[in-house]
Specification:
Layout lengths: L5 H12 L6 E2 L8 H4 L20 H6 L9 H14 L6 E2 L4 E7 L4 E6 L4 E4 L2 E3 L21 E4 L14 E5 L3 H13 L2 E6 L5 E3 L7 H21 L15 H14 L15 H18 L3 H7 L12 E3 L11 E5 L5 E4 L3 E4 L3 E3 L2 E4 L8 H4 L2 E3 L6 H4 L18 E3 L12 H21 L5 E3 L1 H16 L29 H13 L5 E3 L1
Parallel strand pairs: 1-2, 3-17, 6-18, 7-16, 8-9, 8-16, 9-12, 10-11
Antiparallel strand pairs: 3-4, 4-5, 13-14, 14-15, 19-20
Helix pairs in contact: 1-12, 8-9, 12-14
Bound molecules: flavin-adenine dinucleotide and NADP nicotinamide-adenine-dinucleotide phosphate.
NADP nicotinamide-adenine-dinucleotide phosphate binds next to α5.
């Protein structure tokens, strides 16, 4: 098994319960995955903490107390460490170990896994819990290798406190990570220059202390709340009304009410924001209005207004004091669309019209999402077929879980599954439980291999694309379509049909005797 984040830890727990010996490999020195690596200032979940947690253990749920509506990274990491301690999971994980290859041996029907520490493990099953946002992407800017100051990527942040005081800091990137880090860095940096390529829609988090009453309300009702989350992913106030069926006043009131409440609830103000451009335009214009209100300099406000993609089609950002930060004297916003970066020198970022001397460079420039971690491993299936060759024109698999020619290799939260479009804690639990049940089923029918059929895989790929094309998501140049990685094929990478429909589909497959899979 590769990875010891949310997915790897639960997989290990499940397999151990089933009496299956498991060896986990993790590049990091401890558990946590994303929450181990992302120690940048302001790193916080954007799904409410109570929902962004495991539901499989009543005891765990009862004993854990979240301090805030959206927990900060140290608390989520502490939670995952607590899970590892409580269930004694670390003893089956080799840390600081990178899996370099996983090769299927057709003669034995076993996977051979090799690591950078010289491990050579042979196993009947291989679970890739390697993360959908775990391979960081540094910007490919001429001269960056000559820069002499500190360069930090948000997704591989140093473990010591980073002191910005008295320093001129540059941040490249204004996605979810940049949006969280920028207001905090601005508070202590001598000067902060934000290099923005695409402005994003940022909804206020309105984070705050989770009081005893909110904690008790969740704990008392969690059975029903968790059951509902299994259908909808993130528990929100979902609207049954279309934006264009409301009067302009009704829309304004609804958007204002949800803006005041904070969080992802805003994108569910009406039921067609993700599917109807005109409906989406009303929500986008509302946000642009809030930006123009919050930012004092009208020229800066206009640069911060997203205009090139529908709201939510790049992941909506949840921030705290993001737009207000641009009112600070010590913050400069550079619009890379009008003045692109030409190069980075030993001590400055040079754009087409100016030179910005900086002491520290923060790259909030994202990830090679969904396929990156899988393709970084030399995974070979039948006839020596390399996964990255099979997926050259985009990932192909069945239910996002398994891919033809790679028997017994399970992928958690990978392409073709709801993955990063859902509350991932919910999606991960569904995947892990499906995989565990599948292995039990194989034991019961005395099967040693499972593999999807080609027609099932082809139909799933078509279905994933059809579902995506019913939405506005494909309109944006986002990591959801691989647009952030030069040369990556443009394919919509997540399943947009919703976690509820996806779960039903997975259950139907099982009820039909694993429809679309062959066993040997
Ligand atoms: P990860 O947590 O990414 O763990 C995968 C692990 O595999 C990593 O530790 C990595 O080191 C290891 N690994 C990968 N390749 C190898 C290899 N070859 N050898 C050895 N080890 C390897 N989702 C939400 O639903 N809500 C949120 O609020 C939210 N916030 C996020 C914030 C940030 C900053 C990021 C980056 C993502 C966020 N996500 C969020 C998405 C997040 O990816 C998931 O919620 C979840 O943490 C994924 O867990 P995972 O175990 O699948 O993967
Ligand atoms: P991201 O959304 O991919 O954002 C990367 C940013 O860097 C974008 O603004 C991008 O601009 C910019 N960029 C990339 N390369 C650049 C270059 N060469 N020059 C200039 N700008 C460049 O990455 P992220 O912010 O790390 O977030 C990734 C995902 O992780 C999120 O969508 C979310 O799912 C998850 N996440 C969640 C939270 C949370 O709130 N819980 C926090 C962080 C991350 P373009 O848009 O123009 O490409």
């Amino acid at each position: 098994m590769v990875g010891a984040g949310f997915a790897g830890l639960y997989m290990l727990y499940k397999l151990r319960q089933m009496g299956i010996t498991t060896r986990g490999f993790e590049l990091a020195s401890d558990v946590g995955g994303v929450w181990f690596w992302n120690r940048y200032p302001g790193a916080t979940c954007d799904v409410e903490s109570q929902q962004y947690s495991y539901s499989f253990s009543d005891e765990l749920e009862n004993e854990w107390r979240w301090s805030k509506k959206y927990a900060p990274q140290p608390e989520i990491l502490a939670y995952l460490k607590h899970v590892a301690d409580k269930f004694d999971l670390r003893r089956d994980i080799s840390f600081e170990t990178r899996v370099e290859s996983a090769v299927f041996d057709e003669k034995t029907g076993l996977w051979e896994v090799k690591t950078d520490r010289g491990d050579h493990v042979v196993a009947p099953f291989c679970v890739m819990a390697s993360g959908c946002l775990s391979v960081t992407q540094l910007p490919q800017i001429p001269g960056i290798e000559n820069y002499k100051g500190d360069v930090m990527h948000t997704g591989s942040w140093p473990h010591h406190d980073v002191d910005f005081s008295g320093r001129r800091v540059g941040v490249i990137g204004t996605g979810s990570s940049g949006v969280q880090a920028i207001p905090i860095i601005a508070k202590t940096a001598k000067h902060l220059t934000v290099f923005q390529r695409t402005p994003n829609f940022v909804v206020p988090a309105r984070n705050g202390v989770l009081d005893d009453e909110a904690d008790r309300r969740w704990k008392d009702n969690r059975k029903e709340l968790r059951a509902r989350a299994r259908v909808v992913g993130t528990l929100c106030e979902f609207s049954t009304k279309g934006a264009l069926d409301a009067t302009p006043e009704e829309r304004e009131n609804e958007y204002s009410r949800r803006w005041a409440g904070g969080g992802v609830n805003f994108v569910h103000s009406f039921n067609n924001i993700y599917t109807n451009q005109a409906a989406n335009d009303t929500a986008a214009e509302f946000v642009r209005g809030r930006i123009r209100e919050a930012v004092k300099d009208p020229a800066v406000a206009e640069r911060l207004c997203p205009k090139d993609h529908p709201l939510g089609t790049k992941r909506i950002c949840i921030g705290s004091d993001y737009y207000e930060t641009y009112n600070r004297e010590n913050v400069t916003l550079v619009d890379l669309r009008s003045t692109p970066i030409k190069e980075i020198t030993k001590d400055a970022v040079v754009t087409s019209d100016a030179t910005y001397p900086i002491d520290m460079l923060v790259c909030a420039t994202g990830y090679d999402a969904l396929t990156g971690a899988l393709e970084a491993i030399d995974i070979r299936g039948r006839n020596g077929l390399a996964l990255k060759d099979k997926w050259k024109a985009g990932p192909r698999n069945y239910l996002g879980l398994m891919t033809v020619d790679f028997p017994n290799m399970f992928i958690v939260a990978g392409p073709g599954s709801p993955s990063a479009l859902a509350n991932m804690a919910v999606g991960i639990e569904q995947h892990i439980e499906w995989i565990a049940d599948c292995i039990v089923h194989m034991q019961e029918r005395n099967a040693s291999l499972i593999e999807p059929t080609k027609p099932a895989e082809d139909q799933w790929v078509v279905h994933v694309n059809e579902e995506a094309n019913k939405t506005l998501f494909p309109k944006a140049n986002s990591w959801y379509v691989g647009a952030n990685i030069p040369g990556k094929p443009r394919v919509f990478l997540c399943y947009t049909g919703g976690i509820g429909r996806y779960r039903v589909k997975c259950e139907e497959v099982v009820a039909g005797g694993y429809t679309g899979f062959d066993f040997q």
